[in-house]
């Protein structure tokens, strides 16, 4: 299945038969070929190993090029801006896509093939990729940004012991119920991955559209998914699948996967049903959005320290993914994050109005972009975060245009029939270009 199995992720179950996932394989392949055996030793060409594309026939190379690239969107947990930085980034990106495509009705969901979001990033992913009554995404990027700003306190506020004792519905749960109604994972437009942490199995659990289409035992209501991935670590949420057979005790997805990029990449590379021609990171276009780095000195609660730990893991994921992408990371992998803790970042904590929050996010987007460099840490580049978004938007447009004339499908999405809502009612829908 596409989601990470709790039994696979449980540390107690790891043994000698543990299989390294595709992303880890990519990383160690680069380490082995590039650094141990002189894979790209330009000074000593005789020592260099030939690129695998050298062995492909002309027709095979053309076919590989014709299949294009799978486009993945990944969104971090809350961070310093409670999700506003990522939402503002997507609003800018959607505006860019409308302008460059000439389509005033362009949506973010129409230009990505898969999305992964953790915590408030998972809420943002749900808003942008859940199907509305008109068949289009439920929210535009601007509407999703406004939603996070207007409901920031309800989504990010910690519930405290009263919620744990009374087991009453929180403000965030009421908000998600009103927003998503009876929609489930099956009602999303593209492959969606939203993690939480299951206290029962002591392991990550990933809500996955692909799994939901296989069985109702992995289909959940979107309102519950959003509540789970953003739940206070001190106040877990007990939830059940649509058929009631799968139960989890969920807390914030940022505990295990604050940066879900590695999860999304692994899912796509191993999901041959929906991404049949995607064989490596060179076949991907990945946009990873951070939400500003927390100020360690300002953290006073246990939940806050958990979030700090999650952000440290986010940086490690960024480094690992950059390593996996290698030389193609410049064009195929873009990470948008604040450039360190800003001197005036306290504005994010004291901001009460929409203009204050937007100003902080705009300042972060205007910063020079920071790239992870293989074995060299991180470096500041000339392009700003906004520049990077513009350039990436251009790549998305190119891929969209290429698919209009492509014979081979890049993505073959599995869709659920309207009724009955069971795994036997799934069909395959070929999407060589996305609307």
Automatic annotation (TrEMBL):
PROSITE patterns: PNPLA
Top-rank taxon: Eukaryota
UniProt cross-references to Pfam families, sorted A to Z: Patatin (PF01734)
Gene Ontology BP terms: lipid catabolic process
Gene3D superfamilies for the chain: Cytosolic phospholipase A2 catalytic domain
Keyword tags: Hydrolase, Lipid degradation, Lipid metabolism
InterPro entries in the cross-refs: Acyl_Trfase/lysoPLipase (IPR016035), PNPLA_dom (IPR002641)
Record function comment: Lipolytic acyl hydrolase (LAH).
Family that this chain belongs to: Belongs to the patatin family.
UniProt remark on domains: The nitrogen atoms of the two glycine residues in the GGXR motif define the oxyanion hole, and stabilize the oxyanion that forms during the nucleophilic attack by the catalytic serine during substrate cleavage.
Protein's UniProt name: Patatin
Source organism of this protein record: Pisum sativum (Garden pea)
Source taxonomy: Eukaryota, Viridiplantae, Streptophyta, Embryophyta, Tracheophyta
